[in-house]
Amino acid sequence: MDTVHVDCLIFGGGITGLWLLNRLRQQGYSALLLNDGLLGGHQTLNSAGMIHGGLKYGLSALNHDEHLDDMPTLWQQCLQGTGEIDLSRVHLLAKEQHLWAEPDLTAQTTLFLAAHLLAGKVSKLAKNNYPTLFKNFSFKGDVYQLEHPVVDPVSLVEVLAAPQLDCIYAVPATNVHIETNDKQHSKAVFIHQSKIQTRIRARHVFFAGGEGNAELLHKIGIITPMMNVKPVHMLCLQHERLPTFYGHCLGAQRKSRLTISTHPVNGKNMWYIGGEEAEDGVERDEKLQTAMMLEELKTLLPWQSLQGARYKSLLINRIYPQERRLLSSAKAHVQFIGNNALMWPTRLILAPNAAHQVLKHLQQHNELPQHPQPDALPLHKATLGHPVWERFFA
């Protein structure tokens, strides 16, 4: 049996694991990443790609800690090639997002207030600068522009993985055994693949596999549920005449009643639609959910023709930590147990914050790099995944 020594071992090849892998190796740590399934993971690859900061929390100024407020600027710098990771080759779907409100006074007031509370630069647009979707005489409201980008999730995963392909492997969770002591300290990870057994001794183990964390946590003796699974029932809609749009319709309760992102699929635009009906529709079958979502579109965008459109609904599990603290969504959730770290960023935009918490922890505990980067392992290389809607409208 071959034994490999490494500073850091990461489970999970979505945005969280890939961002952490890049940052660790930048800092001189040797690292390996093991991924169950296609690289990118279900939640990352099927995200809208919206880098959206949400409401200003004002927490950074209060406690000198990094939070959601800081993330849009960090992402902008990375996408420009001047940040902590060079993402200048990531395909940008849009440089900005838009906000509008449902047609009643309360919602319009909410839109006005939210526009002044959102993290990032927000501006009210003149009618001649409205996105194509709202250049219709039937629309009577206001549109705000939010200077937060939208990225192509597949391109993001590809760019993050490209410089690290020598240390990323595809390993099913069923082929993994983790040896721990009575203090839940991971001593060794055994991998069985193609009749070959490999033992990895890692000083630090990071569980960044989203929903896949559950099975792995059981392997290190953490039986108490550590995460919540919150499904949403999204709608994929393709039509020849759909305008390109990335934005959010605010309801009266300062929640996103409708969210739309646009993704080209086989030469035609596809809308990826979420919002309140996506959250409320998890128990509906596909036919009923489609009908409810189309009714929502008819109510909020009555001028947009959808005749002849193709539809497919999609259930996506979103993962959150079990115990939600006050304003916990303002930062990623990272919990250290023994030499393990459990990681749930909860949102795409917070993946860098998760990595920052790990690096801060290593620095505070004087955990410096020790082992050189291992040679290639006798394991399968990971393959890049794609969003499911590419199969829907093939």
- The ordered H/E elements are EHEHHHEEHEEEHEEEEHEEEEHHEEEHH
Structurally, how many domains make up the residues?
Answer: 2
What's the assembly state of these chains? single chain
Uncertain regions: pLDDT < 50 for 5+ in a row? Answer: 56-64
End-to-end separation? 44 Å
CATH topology of the largest domain: FAD/NAD(P)-binding domain
Integer average pLDDT:
89
Q: Structural class, from secondary structure content?
A: alpha/beta
Rg over CA atoms: 22 Å
Total strands: 18
Q: What is the molecular shape? A: elongated
Task: Characterize the structure shown.
The chain is an alpha/beta fold and 394 residues long. It has 2 domains: 2-83 and 154-226 and 322-392, FAD/NAD(P)-binding domain (3-Layer(bba) Sandwich), CATH 3.50.50.60; 97-147 and 229-318, D-Amino Acid Oxidase, Chain A, domain 2. It has 11 helices and 18 strands. The chain has helices at residues 15-26, 41-45, 60-63, 71-79, 105-117, 153-161, 213-219, 276-280, 286-300, 351-364, 389-392, and strands at 2-11, 31-35, 92-94, 97-101, 122-124, 144-146, 150-151, 168-170, 176-180, 186-193, 196-207, 227-238, 247-250, 256-265, 268-275, 310-321, 333-337, 340-344. Strands 1, 2, 8, 9, 10, 11, 17 and 18 form an 8-stranded mixed beta sheet that branches. Strands 5-6-4-13-14-15-12-16 form an 8-stranded mixed beta sheet, with helices on both faces. The chain has a two-stranded antiparallel sheet with strand order 3-7. β14 (256-265) and β15 form a beta hairpin. α1 packs across α10. The longest helix has 15 residues, at 286-300. The radius of gyration is 22 Å and the shape is elongated. Residues 56-64 have low confidence and may be disordered.
